[in-house]
Specification:
Layout: H1 26-37, H2 39-46, E1 48-51, E2 55-58, H3 63-74, E3 77-82, H4 88-101, E4 107-112, H5 115-130, E5 140-143, E6 147-150, E7 155-160, E8 173-177, H6 185-196, E9 203-208, H7 215-224, E10 231-235, H8 245-254, H9 259-265, H10 280-285, E11 293-294, E12 298-300, E13 310-315, E14 325-331, E15 337-345, H11 350-363, E16 368-371, H12 377-387, E17 395-398, E18 404-407, H13 422-437, E19 441-442, H14 446-452, E20 455-458, E21 461-464, H15 471-482, H16 486-492, H17 496-512, H18 522-537
Parallel strand pairs: 3-9, 3-10, 4-7, 4-8, 8-9, 13-16, 15-19
Antiparallel strand pairs: 1-2, 5-6, 6-7, 11-12, 12-15, 13-14, 14-15, 17-18, 20-21
Length: about 550
């Protein structure tokens, strides 16, 4: 029998105080060792959760919950793509609680996009902990709103996915809930990685429903293809006991029969946001390519080729950690055009950025350079023009109702770059849509694909969804606009719009004509041409 102080921790009799003596029976010792060895056994026999109807009840783990528990027990990194309401939080509670009870001097970081969400999971862990028999508990040293600490040296801290959440700490187990919804992932994970990279046994667990083709999608696809060291587990709605076709029908009805939303949230399919400039099927077909050279901010997908023609499209931010300065270098020697170099950074100053642009365009045969000058971009353009004496800098002038046109730079009032007017953006968006959907612009960069997946219609235009960025996409929008300029046609000897029109007409004919039909009905062709021209003018 045990001899336990009834005072508990801070008056809570359900918690064992630090230093409380326990007289273990042989059965307790045997049971403790069995729990330490088998997290599933421990979870099903001793962990309790709050049920909305029945109060505190023991958990019964489903097969996929056991799969997750086994995976993180025997592997260092696990990513779980899961349907909503599939019990991922319950699974995380069981895994984390077992980890801190049966290890020494480990710190578990429990993070979510919102700090309150992480603390709610910690509260569930606390409830489960209080329900344990005291001989299974570790003595409590601290029991706070956002953290707990035990006498075996283990800690659990809960917080938001901000760059400062766990800075300076050494983390043994990193759990991120709703990983796909973490904003500014690159900056966040860059700050977190030093806290988890020092140990050889550090564990990482990601759980989330899909949220477009973002960082979570990248991690899951890398895991599925065995490229990144993560174990991939997928839990669509059909794996959850009690969910059948009748449940699906009822759920779809409650969602106003939004099949796309159901597909993403319950079938675990990665889709672009609704209303994206580029249609969802095309977005899913875009495949990330590993750069042949890479720094923290610059990615090279193809080295310069002699006598090839390159253009560089530049977007400029203020370098204060908010929006990104970005540029895209495109090989325009022939169609399809080819993305060869990408830069993205939100900290560099205009002066530093100008030098980076200069070095890059020199490498690519003095690439023709178009800078967006709506804001601070004008400063970068001035530096490139006067200090670096870039002769391939492109100027624009007003073109009346049609917006802007590229000019020589000698006309009065010409800009050393382009101002993104409504007209420029509209033409650019329409041209970009055609280029990508007709496979006439090859995109290799993951971050660009990610931005395209959240570049959605808003009012009469397109922009990044809340919490997302579109700096790389806007470079492509300006590039697409440029391809319809007379200057571009002179430099490349390519009439982009005619090529797209011709390709579209060919595809239309292939889809309309029966196999083996070799004659042409001029009236039919003209009717299709009229439709094509109307679409292109949209």
């Amino acid at each position: 029998m045990s001899s336990i102080s009834e005072r508990g921790y801070n008056g809570n009799v359900n918690l064992k105080r630090k230093g409380t003596p326990i007289e273990f029976s042989q059965d307790m010792v045997s049971e403790f060792l069995k729990c330490a060895k088998d997290p599933i056994y421990f979870s099903e026999k001793y962990i309790q959760i709050v049920h909305v109807d029945h109060g505190l009840i023991p958990i019964k783990m489903y097969d996929y919950q056991k799969e997750i528990a086994e995976a993180i027990t025997h592997n260092r990194r696990v990513t779980v793509n899961t349907s909503r309401q599939a019990g991922k939080t319950t699974t995380a509670v069981a895994i984390i609680l077992h980890y801190v009870l049966f290890n020494d001097y480990k710190t578990c970081a429990l993070l979510a996009n919102k700090g309150d969400a992480a603390r709610e999971i910690l509260d569930r862990i606390k409830i489960a902990y209080e329900a344990l028999p005291k001989w299974l508990q570790q003595g409590v040293i601290e029991w706070n709103k956002g953290s707990v600490e035990f006498e075996n040296g283990c800690k659990i801290i809960a917080g938001s996915t901000s760059s400062s959440a766990i800075r300076g700490k050494s983390i043994s187990f990193l759990y991120i809930d709703e990983t796909a919804f973490v904003e500014n992932w690159d900056e966040f994970f860059a700050s977190v990685f030093p806290t988890i990279s020092s140990g050889n046994t550090t564990k990482i667990l990601f759980t989330s429903t899909p949220n477009g083709l973002n960082h979570f999608y990248k991690t899951c696809m890398g895991a599925k293809e065995d490229r990144n060291g993560y174990v991939y587990i997928e839990v669509p709605w059909a794996r959850v006991p009690g969910r059948d076709e009748a449940w699906k029908k009822e759920t779809l009805q409650a969602m106003d029969f939004d099949t796309q939303k159901f597909s993403q949230e319950f079938e675990c399919n990665f889709l672009g946001s609704s209303g994206t400039l580029i249609e969802g099927s095309k977005l899913k077909s875009l495949v990330e390519v590993k750069p042949i050279a890479e720094t923290q901010h610059l990615k090279v997908y193809e080295q310069p080729i002699k006598d090839h023609v390159y253009v560089c499209i530049v977007d400029v931010a203020r370098g204060k950690g908010l929006d990104y300065s970005a540029f895209q270098i495109i090989d325009v020697t022939s169609m399809p055009y080819n993305q060869v170099c990408v830069f993205r950074d939100n900290t560099c100053t205009p002066i530093d950025y100008a030098e980076i642009i200069y070095r890059s365009i020199q490498r690519y045969g003095e690439a023709y350079t178009l800078i967006e000058v709506n804001d601070i971009g004008e400063q970068v353009s001035e530096i490139l023009h006067y200090e670096f004496e870039v002769e391939t800098l492109m100027f624009t002038e007003s073109a009346g109702r049609s917006g802007k046109r590229i000019t020589t730079g000698f006309s009065k009032g010409a800009d050393k770059g382009v101002r993104t007017t409504k007209s420029v953006k509209s033409v650019g968006c329409n041209m970009l849509k055609m280029l990508i959907e007709q496979d006439q612009l090859r995109i290799h960069d993951f971050q660009t694909i990610n931005e395209l997946s959240t570049f959605s219609r808003k009012a009469n235009s397109y922009e990044a969804e809340s919490g997302c960025h579109d700096d790389l996409v806007m470079c492509l929008v300006l590039f697409a606009w440029m391809t319809d300029q007379a200057f571009f046609k002179e430099v490349t000897d390519i009439n982009t719009i005619d090529r797209l029109r011709s390709r579209n007409e060919e595809e239309l004919m292939e889809s309309l004509l029966p196999i083996g039909f070799n004659t042409y009905d001029e009236d039919v062709i003209e009717e299709q041409n009229i439709g094509t021209r109307q679409w292109l003018q949209y």
